[in-house]
Amino acid sequence: MTAHTQTPALTPATTRAPTAEIASLVHMTGPQSYDYIFGSQSKLEKFIAKAWPMTGTLYSHDATTLVEEIGTIIGIELGYPGKEFYSRRNASLQASIKAAEDGSLTEQDLYGIGDRADKASYLNAWVPEDVYYLMALAVPDTQRGRGIGKHLLASAIDKARADGFRALHLDVLSDNPAIGLYTAMGLTCLAETIAPEPCRDHGIPMEMRMGITL
């Protein structure tokens, strides 16, 4: 087998990227919380299939950078200015409506997702307007150890600094091994939060807001 000698280039995502692969990578950043909110990974996939081609949603192609190799996505970084976070969250409601209109999700699904998403939102500290907020950074298990995650995070930090943000923030569940990478890259824990039903009744670990001043 030929060894990989360099990290593939980063490229802006397009609407043509396979949403099932994107959803799988997003899911791995916090499987407990995504399964709690959506009920299953397959329902998350259906939601992202609608949110991805739209602009201005939490999971939009317009905020995503990819690492691809031989036509396969081997890393993603999804982030945006903090001032966009809440407008993107509101815009994501339209993705849910589209999924209901074509039968991908039922009306009951939507009510459940909305209710659980509201309860889970208390796991996350407020997103300040003057930071770059990294919503998701993920690399498939088969590609770890190649420095892809470090490359994506370093690129996001450089981009945030060049765009004049005072800091980069992200949220991560306290049992996620990615915390080691974030700490090694200079991020520190700014807050630790729990939400009663998600954490106490459904076993979702504490959430950590981590950040680095730029």
Task: Report helical residue fraction.
Answer: 40-55%
Task: Give the helix/strand class.
Answer: alpha+beta
The profile of the biggest β sheet is: 7 strands, mixed
Q: Could you say how many structural domains there are in total?
A: 1
Quickly count the helices. 8
CATH architecture grouping: 3-Layer(aba) Sandwich
Overall residue-averaged pLDDT value: 94
Shape: globular
Descriptive overview:
The chain has 214 residues and is of the alpha+beta class. The protein has one domain (10-213): Gcn5-related N-acetyltransferase (GNAT) (Aminopeptidase, 3-Layer(aba) Sandwich). 41% of the residues lie in helices and 22% in strands. It is built from eight helices and seven strands. Strands 1-2-3-4-5-7-6 form a seven-stranded mixed sheet, sandwiched between helices. Helix 6 (148-162) links the parallel strand 4 and strand 5. The longest helix is centred in the middle third of the chain and has 17 residues, at 85-101. The protein is globular and about 45 Å long. The mean pLDDT is 94. Residues 64-211 form the N-acetyltransferase domain. Keywords: Transferase.
Quick gist of this model?
This protein has 214 residues and is α+β, with helices and mostly antiparallel strands. It has one domain: Gcn5-related N-acetyltransferase (GNAT) (Aminopeptidase), CATH 3.40.630.
Secondary structure blueprint with pairings:
Layout: E1 10-12, H1 19-28, H2 31-38, H3 41-51, E2 64-69, E3 72-81, H4 85-101, H5 107-120, E4 131-138, H6 148-162, E5 167-173, H7 178-184, E6 188-193, H8 196-201, E7 207-213
Parallel strand pairs: 4-5
Antiparallel strand pairs: 1-2, 2-3, 3-4, 5-7, 6-7
Helix pairs in contact: 1-3, 2-5, 3-4
